[in-house]
Model the fold of this input.
Amino acid sequence: MADLSYHHGTRLSESNETPVLVQVEQTAVVGLLGTAPDADPLKFPLNTPVLLKGTPADAVGIGDAGTLKDAIDDVFDQIGAYTVVIRVEEGLDLAATMSNLVGDATARTGVHALLKSEPMLGIKPRLIAAPGFTSGDGVTANPVVAELIGVLDKLNAKAYVDGPDTTDAAALAYRALINSQRVEVIDPKVLVYDTTLNAAVARPASARFAGVQARVDKTLGFWHSASNKAINGIVGVTRPITYGEHSNYLNENHVSTIINTGSGFITWGSRSATDDDLWVFSSVRRTADFINEAIEKAYMEFVDKPFSAANVKLMIESGNAAMRTFIAEGAIIGGKVWLAQDLNDPIQMASGRITLSLDFEPPAPMEDIRFIAHRNIEYYLELTKQALQAAA
Done:
């Protein structure tokens, strides 16, 4: 009870010392960057995040020209996900358009416009693609991808980028120019039937992979890999990838791909373009990002409250309650929150600083399932026993 002044009688007040709720924000939010030169400039202004709430009607006014219309269709073929669209100006040539996509960090244009999504829309894009502008030759790093990496780190987001779609060697050379736990390389392109041309046309696969991960987040959970999932709306791929040695070669070198083992086209590969083996799996990186962010945001409730045993106890209990929930859902294998005394000496605490420790372990995808097959000639004894019983 805060009021310590004199009072004769009884008083009651409700305690606000209750555990905070740790909640993960929306994870299945796609962010698309591209061009749409004949779009409605009022509905889709340049370098401005626009939220599509998951229905094709939201995209009315984007126009037919440029890359955004196809990219939106690629995502919505997988699921009606929240999709943040950022339109950049189409330049006189590809190089000029690429410069517009790289944008300016100070003016927050191009890829930097993604950072305006949360303050403007109240939502963060988590699965980023800029189909048509993220490929390369394997000799020089793609400038859009290079600029995007820093933005991904700020958003705790993931980007799907498109390989060169020529040869396996070119795909590996392209991947070797990227080092980020939040970038996944996709090769080859997909074939989509075009009702205007009455023919199958090649399209970058990145937006479809983003849509698949959004569908996985919604139906299974953000801790699930997007690998080994159906890709809707495609009729083929530009370069067939055979399951086995061929797909292994790409996946081992951190290039995700598309295979068909007789049941339709599926995503294949869970590894990001990083050399850090502990964080190589995309689902592990994303799970850690979302839980770290949820914990950090929830504990804003405690900022500037006075030091007390009750408040510290609530902080620890709130974190452990969240970990139990994450464990029960399958998002993590285990986790806990504690107060380490050696990190919290009186001088630090008198200065207003408290340090909580936490650990948790996201589940890695079971990428390599092995069997050991044995012969057992003892089964002949069972066979003869059955034959003798049948003859009796």
